[in-house]
């Protein structure tokens, strides 16, 4: 009897630790979701690692062109076996070495998980790896032309950090294309203008690549970016008129005002690209002082010729804007808001992104009406979200 009781207690503890912190509460759109991985390089730019295994690998290569691991989510015919979250995790294994052996890839994935979780919560990680996603690998594309969304990941991060949003958009008739955030001569970047512009060049590379896709409607292109990707996408739009809409998931453009001043070509008063900015819960003055937040100005506040939507999401801290981070997060870190409340806020954010893109890329009046609603009318709990709208000059 004691042995049975012990086993029941062990099973309860194991399953409770393995319970997922993330639930995506949105329903798929009318389309199936396909996903495809492409190994390509940008031969106009070099990638020259100086030390470590990558340096040895690239010293043997004839070409040191910049690797561009590319993931494409797209509207597809329904049917087929969906991939698991682990299929996305495996992408970590060949982000910079496109020819890495299976053993090398597995080692890289294990090291990444060790870094993200501090080597803890193994039951949670293993359970998460088995979770099914929506996408079907190499599914048959759905006939038709669809708007394109380029996704720019956060600081030193992966193509799949927001795979849930990418799949959601694809199910509603969008092509989403992403590449990892990679430095000039290593896997890692620095927080400076050169590396922001490096990612902006990656964005333009992916826009060029989208032109080769039969499904892509190149008259309707947006760029979404999380954190560091939410500064690079603004820099890309300042130079590329093909970009018709911007989405920033707590983008760094809000927090690196001095860096934006250095990019003298990115003049906020001249930028006409509409922007949806999803913001984390505001930090206290004491926290801002402690972390030396850059309060020297507001780029988005000066975008007088563009429609700007600022959605403050009180349950969300900065890492919560990446669903991969919520999945692998530490349950002990959740205090004021529960994982369920954070997941629901994330799902609401995805709906706002969809309606914003529908409004500005598909000219859908319902999308713009959704943005104009009070958040509670869109299903948000009272006082959880706050929308501030700053119409372009002349429309105020």
Overview of the structural elements:
The chain is an alpha/beta fold. The chain has a single domain (35-390), classed as Rossmann fold. The chain contains 13 helices and 11 strands. It has helices spanning 2-18, 52-59, 85-89, 102-117, 122-129, 163-171, 193-210, 229-239, 257-262, 285-290, 323-327, 339-361, 365-372; strands at 32-46, 65-76, 82-84, 132-137, 146-152, 175-178, 216-226, 243-249, 275-279, 308-313, 385-390. An 11-stranded mixed beta sheet has the order 3-4-1-2-6-5-7-8-9-10-11, with helices on both faces. Helix 1 (2-18) crosses helix 5 (122-129). The longest helix has 23 residues, at 339-361. The protein starts with a helix and ends in a 6-residue tail after the last strand. Mean pLDDT is 92; it is low at 1-17.
Q: In the CATH classification, which architecture applies?
A: 3-Layer(aba) Sandwich
Catalogue the unreliable spans.
Answer: 1-17
Structural class: alpha/beta
- Overall 3D form: globular
Largest sheet: 11 strands, mixed
Strand % is 15-25%
Just give the CATH class.
Alpha Beta
Number of strands: 11
Q: How do the helices and strands follow one another from N- to C-terminus?
A: HEHEEHHHEEHEHEHEHEHEHHHE
Question: Could you give the distance between the termini?
Answer: 73 Å
Name given to the CATH homologous superfamily? Alpha/Beta hydrolase fold, catalytic domain
């Amino acid at each position: 009897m004691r042995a049975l009781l012990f086993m029941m207690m062990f099973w309860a503890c194991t399953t409770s630790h393995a319970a997922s912190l993330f639930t995506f509460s949105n329903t798929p759109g009318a389309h199936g979701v396909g996903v495809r991985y492409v190994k390509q390089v940008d031969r106009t730019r070099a990638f020259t690692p100086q030390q470590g295994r990558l340096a040895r690998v690239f010293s043997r290569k004839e070409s040191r062109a910049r690797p561009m691991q590319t993931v494409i989510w797209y509207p597809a015919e329904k049917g087929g076996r969906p991939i698991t979250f682990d299929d996305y995790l495996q992408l970590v294994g060949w982000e910079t070495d496109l020819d890495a052996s299976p053993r090398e890839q597995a080692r890289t994935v294990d090291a990444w998980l060790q870094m993200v979780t501090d080597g803890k919560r193994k039951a949670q990680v293993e359970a998460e790896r088995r979770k099914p996603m929506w996408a079907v690998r190499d599914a048959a594309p759905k006939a038709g032309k669809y708007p394109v969304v380029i996704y720019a990941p956060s600081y030193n991060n992966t193509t799949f950090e927001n795979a849930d949003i990418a799949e959601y958009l694809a199910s509603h008739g969008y092509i989403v294309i992403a590449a990892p955030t990679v430095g000039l001569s290593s896997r890692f970047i620095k927080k400076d203008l050169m590396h922001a512009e490096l990612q902006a060049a990656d964005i333009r590379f992916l826009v060029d690549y989208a032109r080769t896709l039969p499904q892509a409607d190149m008259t309707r292109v947006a760029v979404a970016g999380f954190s560091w990707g939410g500064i690079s996408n603004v820099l890309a739009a300042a130079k590329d008129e093909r970009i018709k809409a911007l989405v920033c998931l707590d983008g760094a453009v809000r927090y690196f005002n001095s860096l934006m001043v250095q990019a003298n070509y990115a003049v906020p008063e001249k930028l006409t690209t509409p922007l949806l900015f999803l913001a984390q819960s505001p930090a206290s003055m004491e926290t801002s002082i402690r972390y030396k937040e850059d309060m020297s100005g507001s780029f988005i506040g000066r975008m007088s010729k563009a429609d700007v939507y600022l959605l403050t999401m009180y349950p969300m801290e900065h890492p919560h804007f990446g669903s991969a981070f919520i999945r692998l997060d530490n349950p002990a870190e959740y205090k004021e808001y529960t994982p369920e409340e954070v997941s629901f806020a994330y799902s609401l954010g995805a709906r706002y992104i969809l309606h914003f893109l529908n409004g500005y890329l598909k000219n859908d009046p319902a999308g713009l009406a959704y943005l104009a609603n009070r958040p509670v009318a869109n299903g948000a709990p009272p006082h959880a979200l706050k929308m501030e709208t700053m119409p372009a000059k002349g429309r105020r």
